[in-house]
Every structure is written in structure tokens, then in C-alpha cells.
Predict the 3D structure of the following.
Amino acid sequence: LKAAPEIPIASETLPGTSGVIVKKVADATASAIAHPEFDRILQAAGLEARNDIGSDKAKTFWTSERQHLLPIIKAAGLEPQ
Amino acid sequence: MVSRAKPDGYTLLFGDTSCEVIAPSLLKQPSYDPTKEFEPISLVATSSTAIVVHPSVPATTLKEFAVYARQNQDKLSYASAGVGTVTHLAGESFKQLVGAPKITHIPYRGAGPGLIDLIAGVVPMMSPMSRAKCWAFTARARFGYWRFARRVH
């Protein structure tokens, strides 16, 4: 805020990384993923680049992973140690 | 360390399923909560696991192997890279999907020792990561570890 630069914005004061920073890194990540050389390196390592990039999709993915894997962990009898 | 770093965008974690899902669920007092202490930025890449069987196993397709596994689950075992690894969960997922809960899990200290025993025929089955699939034997089926239910046919 130009009128009150000494007052920190909420995202800089509250815990967690600000949305601006997340977007900036996410955009840089998207640029890297779109690069053919990056894709070639991934494939050489047996990996596949994701095309569903971005913060929201990452959150959705991890939620889905937990819903999928936690029952398997439980069924396997793995107890927290 | 990452969870305690200043949230300024200069400290990043290149995480995976193990650190985001498996490890926190296997510790009574995990040092971090991935759902609260990390801000997801982007997905980058996917790796796959492969169900690999020794040539002595009488199955040429995954479908045949699923039937064989169900019928012979009492004497079948599989190797993994260790307890709680993605390869372990892949094996457990396979057991659930094909209805063969009695298949015995044999955890190794990493994928290497397990692969050696697989090649030697000590264990008939393993679920290594994708790069291992091309070594000395045939991967009978390859699929994303988060999509077993839809892709195992």
C-alpha cells in the first residue's frame, strides 16, 4: 500500500507462503516443465512430465493420494512408530 | 528444516509421495504436517511402478498373473525396497486389487538386494520403480501407483 508502506500486508505477517510467491515459483516451474530438454531429461530418468501443473492441482493431487494410500497403509497393518 | 524455514519462497522442497503421504502416516510424532506446513506449488513429474515376475511364474499377462496370484497366494511372495516404501504399497495394493491377501511381503534393504533375489528366483515377484523394469527381466505390466484400481486389468 503506497499510502502506508510501513504496514505489512496480511500474507507477509501471517504464517505460510504468500500467494504471490507461490504463483511466481509455480509459473517458473511451468516454464521449466514446458521446455523440451527438461522433458527429455525426465524421460531418460523414467519419469513423465505432468501437464496438470499449478498450486490448486497439486493440492487436489495430494488430497487424492492421501485418500488412496492411507487405506492401503492401514490394510497392510503398518502402525505408526 | 523446510517446514521451519522462513516462508519467503527461497527454501523449496522437491517432495514425493514418500515425504508427503507415507512418512508422516508411519510416525507417531512426525516432525512436520504436510497438509499444514507446506504450500503445494506444482506437480512436476510422475514415476511408475511395475509388477515384475520371475520367468518361472506361469503367466504372460497381468490378467493371467492376477488369476495365478489368487490361486497360489499361499505360496507366493513379493519383494519390496523396504517397509513403508512406495514399492511396498504397490505390492499391497496389488494384493487388494486381485483379491490375494495371503501373498507374503518380503522387505529388503533397498531395491537392489530385492532385485538380486528376484533375478535369482528366490522371490517370484517384485514391484520396483520404473527404471528397474528394463534390467534383466520382463515387466509384465506397468502402471501409475496412484491409479492401480483403474489400470490393473
